[in-house]
Amino acid sequence: MKTSTYILASLLALLFLLGAKSVNAQEVEDEREFDYAKESEKGPRKWGELKKEWEACKDGKLQSPIDMSNERVRVISKPEKRIYKPFNATVRNRGHDISLRWNGDAGSILINGTEYPLRQAHWHSPSEHTINGRRYAMELHLVHQTSDLNVKNRIAVTGVFYKTGKPDKFLSKLMTNISSMVDQKDEDRNVGIINPKDIKMKSQRYYRYMGSLTVPPCTEGVIWTINTKVKTVSRDQLKLLREAVHDYAEDNARPLQPKHSRDIYLYGPGDTSD
């Protein structure tokens, strides 16, 4: 009798452990809300179906990223005004990317008379946008947002392309901190004073169009500015950015989206409007 009771208790304990393991595995699986795998149930083609507030990912007509094709570009002469300054910043592993967030006033960008304060920057590899079909090794996004509720388009993002070559000096300053948070989602590291000017993204020409965020909820009405000057990043830097995030985001570039007859503008000194 004691033997039978012992066996039954052992079986119950084993079933409990297996059940607990299953629940934990499910919780880990549910940790991410979306991913980049093409055939995944949480991949880019499914984003708009995962949550009602993400429907723009599927139904939106102004989605990003897109290809900048010269035959659709309207050339306009209009300088861009960017006023950045150093401020304390934090690096964060968001699981799907590595982001750099300034904890105060790091300056702003001026677009059509509206000032858009710089909020954060993050990296995508490979690039999300393309130029005449060419995709680059990496794309940096600098996200700006105004708190003025009277402004219709409150988010402005600047994109910077990188090809493999010499190490990026700006990213080099963050490498040690990024290395310490490999595959550790929601980890933060204070990196001290960071000057956005050190990105050195001055370009004589840049594209601009109206698009969206490239991750859920794919909010539209985002003013995109894409620099034509291509910077360099080392293979080791690219490798670290990919290793630091979760496996499902090592290639964290959303596929190109339909243009839907949108205007694309090329700004540059000395150019005139069509």
Automatic annotation (TrEMBL):
Cofactor field: Zn(2+)
- A GO BP annotation: one-carbon metabolic process
> What Gene3D superfamilies does the entry give?
Alpha carbonic anhydrase
Q: Where is this region: Disordered?
A: 252-274
Tell whether Metal-binding is among the UniProt keywords.
yes
What SUPFAM superfamilies has UniProt attached to this entry?
Carbonic anhydrase
What EC class is this? lyase
Question: What terms describe the molecular function in GO for this protein?
Answer: carbonate dehydratase activity; zinc ion binding
EC number annotated for this UniProt entry? 4.2.1.1
Give me the reactions it catalyses: hydrogencarbonate + H(+) = CO2 + H2O
Where do the TM regions start and end?
A: none
Q: Where is the signal peptide?
A: 1-25
Q: Which Pfam families match?
A: Carb_anhydrase (PF00194)
Keywords of this entry: Lyase, Metal-binding, Signal, Zinc
* InterPro entries named among the record's database cross-references: Alpha_CA_prokaryot-like, CA_dom, CA_dom_sf, Carbonic_anhydrase_a-class, Carbonic_anhydrase_a-class_CS
- Domain named Alpha-carbonic anhydrase: which ranges? 32-268
Say what the protein does.
Answer: Reversible hydration of carbon dioxide.
Q: Which family does it belong to?
A: Belongs to the alpha-carbonic anhydrase family.
Name-wise, this protein is: Carbonic anhydrase
Q: Which organism is it from?
A: Olea europaea subsp. europaea
